[in-house]
Amino acid sequence: MPTHGARRAGAVWRALAQGLTAAVLGVSLLVSAPSAFASGTEQLKAFVAQVQSARGDFVQREIKAPPKNVAASGSVVPTTGGTSSGTFVFARPGKFIWTYEKPYEQVLQADGDNLYVYDKDLNQVTIRKLGGALGASPAAILFGSNDLDKNFTLSDAGVKGGIDWLELTPKARDTQFQRIGIGFRDGNLEAMELHDVFGNVTLLTFSNIQKNPALKPGSFKFTVPTGADVING
After folding, report:
1. CATH superfamily of 4-25+27-232
2. Residue of 172, 182, 179 whose CA lies nearest to 196
3. pLDDT digits (tens, 9 = 90+) for 14-39
4. Which of 10, 226, 18 is nearest to 136 (CA)?
5. Would you put residue 162 in left (φ > 0), alpha (ψ -120 to 50) or beta?
6. How far apart are CA 133 and CA 192, in angstroms?
């Protein structure tokens, strides 16, 4: 039977790379002059084209809106699950370090070839081939290449609360996510909403973003902690 840590690591990986973790998601990441953008779709494409690397903080909230939670008005009343927070850094394509600091410590790290999931509580590292898994996943938007139109159908979703939203629908049929919402305000990335096939929603918000920071060579090389168990999965 899989351990709690293994189940947790699996859930995080599905969220980020099978379409995350997060995954994946306000942000103050300036991608261009605000007047240059007319829609959320244009702002996303500018972000992907201009931001090759970034670092910052994130908060991840798990939300579920089951059909039985229906208010008198007929609207669905969402219930809120767990909240996690931490830091991230990425360099396209396929290199990132996604670090959960609260409520538990866990690291997802990719060097372009492999994904390493390190659970500090268990002192355990799980290694998987990254392969083409980022292609049609939410993680591809932050960490992948700039071929969004190849993997997603993009459509503007209007303005809500002063934020320009767009929706991305994966073209692949074997993804765990039905759609991904992304919000921008005045050229700045604000939020991502990941809607899975079970009706769950993962909300990611970012802060303290630095775009295109100088990263040292070998920044994404993973070193197995002393004494850690290694599982090739």
Report:
1. Lipoprotein localisation LolA/LolB/LppX (2.50.20.10)
2. 179
3. 445 444 433 333 233 333 334 345 68
4. 18
5. left
6. 19
